[in-house]
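Quick question, first post here. What does this chain look like in 3D?
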Amino acid sequence: QVQLVESGGGLVQAGGSLRLSCAASGSIFSINVMGWYRQAPGKQRVMVARITSGGSTNYADAVKGRFTISRDNAKNTVYLQMNSLKPEDTAVYSCNLIQRGPEYWGQGTLVTVSE
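> Answer (accepted):
Ran it through. Tokens below.
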């Protein structure tokens, strides 16, 4: 089994920055994909950013140029650096991992951006 624990959420003012972390533990294989998703109030959960174990990334259009995803394979940890935050970034951010079929999710961390 795999466990994912997010941290780093909080309340920030528009234009500010925040860094989220997600630490994976358990049976982690060398080839996998980790990512960040978010769900705003009243909206569907959407992909924000993903990164493979080889370092390939992709981003949602809404966050391109503002967010950066990275990972430390030795620590089984993925990060999301969020800059120039906007009120519309307010959401619960959840960490995701896929390896050899099964999909795992963290509990989520709340990011609130005030005007």
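The chain is about 0% helix and 55% strand.
The first strand starts at residue 2 and ends at 7.
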